[in-house]
Amino acid sequence: MANDPIHQFQISKFFSLELGGVDFGFTNSSLFMAITVATVAGFLIMATSRRGLVPNRMQSIAELSYEFIAQTLRNTAGSEGMKFFPFVFSLFAFVLVGNMLGMFPYFFTITSHIIVTFALAMLVISVVIVYGFMKNGVKFLKLFVPSVPAWLLPLLIPIEIISFVARPLSLSIRLFANMLAGHITLKVFAGFVVTLSAFGAVGWAGAVLPFLLAVALTALEFLVAFLQAYVFATLTCIYLHDALHPGH
Amino acid sequence: METEAAKLIGAGLACTGMGGAGIGLGVLFGNYLSGALRNPSAAQGQFTNLLLGFALTEALGIFSLLIALLLLFVF
Question: Does some domain include residue A205?
């Protein structure tokens, strides 16, 4: 089908490279991940190469994004959390640029595949668990024991454990589902325009409505692309807060 | 029942979950607006929290849409 709304998520391989039973082939997903990293790194390097006391336009953007994430991290995880700033900023920049690149027509959206977002979410949770045990030792398990009357504990501890285990799932599914559903919706409305315009003049008049809606949805998608990157970074900060201060 | 029909019915049923997200977004923005009208000077400070709540609530509606899409396109 020519205008299949999920055709845009197809992974195509440019070349394959089998090493010891593992395929290291280069796909369009890998290409766009490389472009994302190159964009972020290139922009930040360019913005900070000729830095001055009075920042020029690019340097202000770099400084604003730095301040934005630093503020979020300080507010949610405390000033102790600032040692995780490079981690959180890299995650935010990667997800944000990945989402935004996906908004270009015919570009591949890396965050619309659950394996990518799940890998990111597992990275976050692994950092939380490893750092939590490194810093607090066994006291990290206090995370699962809320301060309530003792008779409630048998009920609440399993709930806390389940909610902790569900975190990587909800973190990854939130990002992936938002990008997937948003892009499918855009394509479905664009498909309405094509289908309607096949009916001649009346169809052209009718096609105006889905066209306007597709334009409005594109604007909403840009908002969602930014918000989801922000939410991903914020939730990472909240989970890091648990690793730093496990007591409720 | 034919599988195709069951698939379509399931996708339709899955979409009813989005009503919950609609209610949630209504509560969220309604309460933000009423709070903002009572104390406009504090409204700007809570705007990021509003967006955070919007993204978290909207994600739940997207989950049910995702189930519907999976039923339609994957199975």
Answer: yes
Domain span including residue A47: 24-244
The answer for A 196-225 residues in CB contact with B (under 8 A) is 224
Pseudo-torsion of CA A192, A226, A230, B19, nearest 10°? -30
Residues in CB range of A110: below 8 A, 6 or more apart: A29, A32, A33, A36, A98, A101, A102, A116
Find out whether A74 and A244 touch, Cβ atoms under 8 Å. Answer: no
Runs of H (alpha helix) within chain A: 28-49, 57-77, 85-102, 114-136, 153-197, 200-244
Look at residue A1 in the predicted model and tell me its pLDDT.
Answer: 43
Percent of chain A predicted with pLDDT > 90: 43
Please state whether beta strands A18-19 and A13-15 pair in parallel, antiparallel, or not at all (unpaired): unpaired
Report the alpha-carbon distance of residue A242 to residue A129 in Å, rounded: 9
> Domains in chain A: how many in total?
1
For residue B66, the domain's CATH number is: 1.20.20.10
pLDDT digits (tens, 9 = 90+) for A77-86: 888 889 999 9
User: What's the complex ipTM?
Assistant: 0.73
What is the total count of domains within chain B? Answer: 1
Identify the three-state secondary structure at position A13.
Answer: strand
- Its domain, for residue B22, covers 3-73
Angstrom distance (rounded) from CA B61 to CA A178? 9
In percent, the amount of chain B with pLDDT more than 90 equals 48
Looking at residue A238, its amino acid is I
Q: Mutating which of B49, B56, B62 best tests the A interface, going by the most A Cβ atoms within 10 A?
A: B62
B37 vs A: CB within 8 A: no
Q: Is the minimum CB–CB distance between B10 and chain A shorter than 8 Å?
A: no
Q: Do B54 and A178 touch (CB under 8 A)?
A: no
Determine the distance in angstroms separating the CA of A228 from the nearest CA of chain B, rounded to an integer.
7
Confidence of residue A3 (pLDDT cuts 50, 70, 90): low
Tell me if A181 and B69 make a contact (CB, 8 A cut-off): yes
